[in-house]
## 1
Amino acid sequence: MAAFRVYTHGAMSDEALPGASFEDLALPLFDSLYNFARWLTHNREEAEDLVQETYAKALRGFRSYQPGTNFRAWIYRILRNTFLTSRTGLKATMTVPLDEEEHGPMMPVTPETPESILLDQSSRQILQDAIEKLPVIFREVVLLCDVEEMSYQEIAEMLGIPIGTVMSRLARARRALREGLQAKAQGA
Amino acid sequence: MACDLWRAKIEAYADGELPAAEQAAFDAHLPNCAACAADALARVQMKRAMATAGKKFTPSAEFRQRIEKQISSRPKSSRLKAWLPGLAVAAAVLVIALAAGNRWMASQERRTLGEIADLHVATLASGTPVDVVSTDRHTVKPWFAGKLPFTFNLPELQGTPYTLIGGRVTYLHQTPGAQLLFQVRQHRISVFIFQDRPGLDFTSGANGSVSRQLSFNMESWSEGGLRYVAISDVDSGSLRQLCDLLKAAG
């Protein structure tokens, strides 16, 4: 069962080498920053504007970045803060459910859960639709954890929330995704 | 540990976030608990599906270029840096080409001077060294009219140690020119006059001053589109003096 643990946080070094230029650090993150921006904004133009503004801000503030610390978390934080102050971001955060910080009991995944359907292309689409429908505070946390493979600690630092909140949001996000998938599977 | 307690940690377990000891304990628990094993498997599968489905959007090449341009910290120097190796190679090639060219030019020049020396020697060896025999410059100069595509002036040699013997039409590199023969004491001096052209400007050797080529003394200069080459076995001072007279007349 040890094979379950496919994620080993920290194996990948996110710490910048001292003396690395902004370009060296920021350019490799371009694709994932854009992907994340698209998930946040749901829109190509807005995502491009967001990434462009993020790079501009990061470039201007590069002096405040501490060499040797986590550059990826630093620039993601800039992107997210930029998003939150944008029109789309403000609108998105207004719709946060009031009970989002509730620490509900960890619901077991029922054996009937059709995760196996996720292997094909159409179920990939279903999952993407389910991600789209998630409120932004759940969407970002599950994307950062599962797509960007950030640790709870990194996510907590990036979003400026306690680790406990990261865990509860993750649980909420995944429960919503599972429910979405189940509804789709049963509907089909 | 009771299964309920494990259940509370199953999410962190699937995320690989449990402390190493707990992670190992969970590993040990799973083979004994079908429910936990199925749950953990489902969560890991979900994570894998998310990792794939979440990588949905790719930036356009045009946008990538825009960002690369935006954050390029040293747009000019980096471009220059990229060019530097090429430039170095180009510069090296140029230097080698110039050196080779110089050597080639020098060898060309030596060959031309050698040909001129041959013409001079052949003239001296001939029974009829000149076609127009005259000490009078007013006879020799008109003789060339119609035979050469250019004209030139000859100095008055009265009161000098030099005498004009005559002249003939000669050829160098398939182009016609005048060869004038002078005498000073027992020495003959040939003065060749050609239309100036590249390959006749003797930059490294006999240009403007007397130099020794193949044990002959030579002097060459250019004036009014004409290339003059004087060659003789006479001493350089005497050669120089005749050249000065010719230059003054030109």
## 2
Amino acid sequence: MKRPIKTGFTYVRRAPYQAIAVVLVMAVSFFVTTLIALLVYGSTKLLVYFETRPQVIAFIKTDAKDDQVLLLQDKYRNDSRVRELKIVTKEDAFQLYKDATASNPLLGELVSPSIFPSSIEVSVKDLTYADAVVSELQQSEIVESVGFTASVGSQDQLGSVIERLRTITKAVRVAGAVAVGVLLATSLLVLLVVMSMRISMRKNEIESLSLLGATSSFIRNPIMVEASVYAFLGVFFGWFSASLVVMYGSPKLLAYFGTIEVLPHTLQGLLVILGALFGAELLAGLIIAILGAIGAVWRSLRMVQ
Amino acid sequence: MLEFKSVSKRFGQITALDDVSFRIEDGEFVLIIGTSGAGKTSILRLVVREFAPSEGEIYLDDVSVHDLRKRDVPKLRQQVGAVFQDFKLLPTHTIAENIALALAVKGVPQREWEERVEHVGNLVGIADRLHLFPSQLSGGELQRASIARALVVNPKIIFADEPTGNLDWETAEGIMKLLARINQEGKTVIVTTHNREIIKEHKGRVMEMKKGKLIKDTNKKHEKAD
């Protein structure tokens, strides 16, 4: 295995400009691939965030009796349409108010828990159930009003926000897959063309080796090493540049999205994601390199043998 | 032993070899002569299985060259020390590296390379040229390097295709003497040539080709023995 590696590196050294061209094309491909992968990750997290928020909040009338509230809770706790149910008592609501007005403690001191309504927060498993649940809650005699945590004003708008998110996420995934596919195919093609060019420059060498009795693998292995070097460098530079961009931009991005974890909040978490991406991209790059080298050598040997 | 049995090779309308039969025993030194296009090189290309015959059978010892599977071709080529008119030395490698390449192809351990390369370098008289690149050598030296590369793997048979084609008479004579010495050491040597001087000087077997046919063989007893 020593000879193919040594010969492969010699091939790279002999034509540095072609090597730079291949590495640059692959670096651009994997730069975009890294960013698209992180975009898909972030949009998925965003969608999951909104999908798992309590979508329906029923504010309980202040004169409602405890057993009536318990009955309503039990009804929805055992409902197959409901993913999660949470009770917010008057005290909890008061605490939330105090937390929200922490910058102005006077506001918290002016009110007492009794003025806050207790509420039931319901997350449905699918948004299509939301309408029915809302209607049922509105008809309940202990419910004062029904609202939404992700509310942008009305029931229609809540649905449309999530629907829009779903559409965007799907579009990002599809467009990302198409873009990544096109870029990887371009990389494969460029690698194939450059490797074919390199092989055609070495046609006499391959012919001589073949006539000396070299096996296909003897001829192919150094060329595969050469292609793998290009792939490794291309993946590394593409991934590294994209990682720098992401690490530079992530504090602003995370601040903008607040509690929504479109990217991991810790450096360690971000490095894990980027590391996993590097591994996956390196694998893809090596597959492209090996396929490109095999294809180019096969074409060349077909002409020689 | 190399044997051709009624071998023909056609490329479309062109017949390169037409019903050629001969048998060359181990240790022989045979000249295959003829004008350009007579079919001399086609014999070498059939022996190293660059292509298969259109008809007929070819045997190299116990190997049926004519129906050899593609994956077995490298092994066959490792047993034939082919010397080409255009040398086929790699310009980016030194002469020593070119010779060692044949050893690498055959899978000889690297620790043996230096000794074997020096040995054949001495044998063919280019020991002091081993560190040079092909572009720094004369035609005769390049042909000697090509012979050294063929010899280094200790092949059963040396097949030299027009080894004196581009050389002056003095250098050509030196190459033929070298091949004769290799033959005296027990190797089968087959040389194709159209050089009249070499043919006149050669005392051994001569096979003459014309338009793809074997028209004369000074050692017919082998064919009759079949």
